[in-house]
Design a protein that fits this description.
Largest interface: A-B, 35 and 35 residues
Largest sheet of chain A: none
Strand content of chain A: under 5%
Oligomer: homodimer
CATH topology of the largest domain in chain A: Tetracycline Repressor, domain 2
Number of domains of chain A: 2
Radius of gyration of chain A: 19 Å
Shape of chain A: elongated
Chain lengths: ~190, ~190
DNA sequence: CAGGAGCGCTAGCGGTGCTAGAGTTGTCGG
DNA sequence: CCGACAACTCTAGCACCGCTAGCGCTCCTG
């Protein structure tokens, strides 16, 4: 029975190798450079091996997305707990979110922009994703007012997502990013 | 000399034909269905003819984007001038924007999401694009408060863009769209 | 040690955006 | 009126993509 165990372990290791190779390649050269041929070359196996682990390229990207989302959740948590002032915490979380998108665009895209079939906004959503959303939610909790917290979080999140995607797509000038972010945070804070 | 004039006219007509074919095909089946082969078949010319009009597929998409943006500007203008109440006008503009994205996703994507090299946020930006932005801007003018109107517009626009892209990407549940939109409009309205 | 199952490989399918070069068409000067 | 030339379009093909059928090797099992 230990023979089979070893094989399964090796399989799992190879799967991890594929995911990290995809992630590394994407972060280095963008997702358009991640082809199944290059990926297979990286992990030193032939193309069809990829398909014995994942249903297709999308599934590989989805796996990378879940991993990356955990990183985002860590960043957001650190930002939220960096200060006791609720308003500053919200600003910090917003800045951390935008910073993540700026520093790791490939990771951000695969989580939030590219078409991968991950379940969002349902109980089946991957835990890291729910964790990241939860950080946003907790940061907004003091500002909830009469609104529903879940919907408020989704709306604030949309604002952040719009800011970073439009900026990265060249639709918004880079230099005023901080001021736009300040406006967003301000408008989502309760009046004193 | 009139021979050359006729040729140029015919060329211009064919160029329009290509653009409308691309737009029609994209709206009917999505941009992933718009290939240079299918496009060439639609206009009843061979592939290389497309490249005598446009530098590449991206340039064709950019042309469609400019056209589509004019439509968006019309919708936004109608919404903004549909009421005298500033707050209702802002809500109407937001709803019209989201509605456009929902009704014509292919058009919306090529304007705001896909990578096409259109100049944004500069004087060289296409007029229809500036017109659409201007409508948003005018709708926000009564709510500007102490903020810069341009930046406020960009930020509100980001909120709308985030809402529609996250929803269309399956990241936000569809059913609560109206309530999220209401929250966004509310948070971007001055307190009474 | 023979047989067989599992697995990774080579090769290839149908598609993509794009382009070189051949061939045809239509215009103009002699 | 005709032949040469210029403009233009088409066929064919390149290098790449995601994905898969089926052969052949390796290694475990009876």
């Amino acid at each position: 029975m230990s023979i089979q165990a070893r094989r399964e372990r090796e399989r799992a290791e190879r799967e991890r190798l594929i995911i990290t190779a995809a992630r590394t390649l994407a972060e280095a050269e963008g997702w358009e450079a991640v082809t199944t041929r290059r990926l297979a070359e990286q992990v030193e196996y032939s193309q069809p091996v990829l398909y014995s682990h994942f249903k297709g390229k999308d599934a590989i990207m989805a796996a990378v997305a879940v991993e990356g989302c955990a990183d985002l959740a860590v960043d957001l948590h650190a930002a939220r707990t960096s200060t006791d002032d609720p308003r500053q915490a919200l600003a910090a979380v917003g800045a951390a979110y935008a910073d993540f998108a700026e520093r790791r665009p490939a990771l951000y895209d695969v989580i939030f922009s590219l078409a991968v079939d991950l379940p969002f906004a349902t109980p089946e959503a991957p835990a890291p994703l729910q964790a990241a959303f939860g950080e946003l939610s907790q940061a907004l909790e003091p500002q909830v007012g009469d609104d529903d917290l879940g919907l408020l979080t989704e709306t604030f999140w949309s604002g952040l997502h719009g800011l970073v995607t439009l900026m990265r797509g060249g639709r918004l000038p880079r230099e005023a990013h901080d001021r736009r972010l300040a406006i967003l945070v301000d408008r989502f804070s309760q009046r004193p």
